[in-house]
Specification:
Ribosomal Protein S5, domain 2, five-stranded mixed β-sheet, 10 strands, binds adenosine-5'-diphosphate, alpha+beta
Length: 261
């Protein structure tokens, strides 16, 4: 980031190195409830990012001095696996992971009705298995779905997207090359139902007009992603309902996990 580059990121047809238009998202898919031990979980693939989120709680906060008598404490922990990037990443928390954990915790606390659960902790684990830029927003997006899967009351699932500037043009959802050689990256997330912005950062520089363009693009993308989150939840829970209905008459052909022969 920040380097003046010789790398050409937008071609003569206005397409980006992965063929996307300037306001086009990478492909996103979300799966709900992939872990059995967690109270809620989700898996997201977002372009080259692969991220798992697991939620535990609300449960009594321990040790006791970490309890807040008036609300739940939200502890998000973002971690990048050693194998998530080309060069092996040194395992364990670093400054970057600590920062991302903090801003994600704060964002989630803004949407959860924390005052309903005094003295408890809500633990949110975000594990990045594969990273290709935009992992903090991918993680926050998955964590929000995992919270919903855990049944934790909240204003809405947080949705977001980064926008930024490459080759002098404002573009949506930067990939790794664009993040490395571009001029700016602006991660952004909001609570769709209220419009409240809960995460906003900027790496690099934008003019005011470019910034406004970036936010407009990210907001549209967030609304689209918000729908994907809802669809992912409905897919899980309509499947569960179907299983309930067909319990008495198991299907032939043992393809499903709960077909009893
Ligand atoms: P985000 O993933 O939210 O965009 P950054 O802008 O800090 O966060 O990082 C951009 C990308 O840089 C990451 O998604 C990842 O692909 C890569 N990256 C981050 N940290 C490391 C690291 N320690 N080693 C190798 N690549 C990294």
């Amino acid at each position: 980031m920040g380097m003046v580059s010789e790398v050409k990121l937008i071609d003569e047809n206005g397409l980006r190195i992965d063929g996307r238009k300037f306001n086009e998202l990478r492909p996103i898919s979300i799966e709900v409830g992939i872990l059995n031990r967690a109270d809620g979980s989700a898996y997201i693939e977002w372009g080259g990012n692969k991220v798992i989120a697991a939620v535990y709680g609300p449960r009594e906060a321990f040790p006791k001095h970490t309890q807040n008598p008036s609300k739940a404490v939200v502890n998000a922990r973002y971690n990048m696996a050693a194998f998530s990037v080309d060069e092996r990443k040194r395992p364990g928390p670093d400054r970057r992971a600590t920062e991302i954990s903090k801003i994600i915790s704060e964002a989630l606390e803004a949407t959860i009705f924390v005052e309903q659960f005094p003295r408890t902790a809500i633990d949110v684990y975000i594990e990045v298995l594969q990273a290709d830029a935009g992992t903090r927003i991918a993680g926050l997006t998955a964590a929000s779905v995992a919270l919903a899967d855990a049944g934790i009351p909240m204003r809405d699932m947080i949705a977001g997207c980064a926008a930024g500037k490459v080759d002098g043009k404002v573009v949506l959802d930067l990939n790794k090359e664009e993040d490395n050689y571009g001029q700016a990256d602006v991660p952004f997330a909001l609570i769709p139902r209220t419009g409240e912005v809960v995460l906003l950062q900027m790496d690099g520089n934008l003019t005011r007009a470019e910034f406004e363009e970036a936010i407009e693009m990210s907001t549209k993308a967030a609304m689209f992603i918000s729908n994907l989150q809802r669809e992912a939840l409905m897919t899980k829970y309509s499947r569960a309902e179907e299983r309930e209905e067909t319990k008495e008459e198991p299907k032939n052909g043992n393809s499903g996990e709960d077909a009893h022969e």
